Amino acid sequence: MATRDCAPAHPEGASYPAVTERLVNRAREARLAGERTAARPRAEIDASWDRVLRSGIDPEQSPDSTLLETDEIEHRRRSTALGEVMPLLREGLASIADAAQQIMVVTDTEGRVLWRQGHPAVMRRAKGICLEEGAAWTESATGTNAIGTALAARVPVQVHSAEHFIRALHDWTCAAAPVRDPRDGRLMGIVDISGPASTFHPATLALVGSVAALAEGELRGRHLVAIERLRSVAAPILCRLGGRALVVDAHGWLAAVSGMPP
After folding, report:
1. 3 state DSSP class of 243
2. Which domains does the chain have, with CATH numbers?
């Protein structure tokens, strides 16, 4: 029976020296064997390992998945507002990822990769772990990883080396953050930076979270502009109507009102 460990293998805010990687790997091997160990992973990794163990993922399996067809990828790109903020994401993350020998990855709410961009050599290397457009990166498909774990926990998360449940991902590091639609609060997808484990930096998670927040702010600004545009058209019409009336946009946001308090 698996038991919880006693001390964190990775103190919050610390970097990942070789000794820490060994402790995390030891904690992972002990968890797989159902044994007690003096080290345990960070809380978010611990919770993810529990979920993945319950799902029956094989730690020795390949991260390969069946890719979506090109037409389906394009359909999903057109169906999400994330496409509207891709220029901002490319400006805020892709150029940095390229310089840091990493790649930026953007997925939908099902963990399917819709866009990726960054260092050409890392893009080629990423194909070896199926981190490419159309691939599935939920925890149920690929075990503990920043994309899938951010989807499951709905919070930004960084996953490094042996914190990945599947051994084939131990040479990688990644940080991801959810992007929510400011109009209704629903999850839209995940923004992620991934690269070889040697490119790990503790500030990457804060960077990804900040750019995700900028993307949400951009969508919020676009929505407010659309509301004002609708109000300018609707207000004169309501003025000519008797009684009470209101106009809302497709998301239920109030644009104009007549005959009652706003």
Report:
1. coil
2. 7-41 (no CATH), 70-219 (3.30.450.40), 220-258 (no CATH)
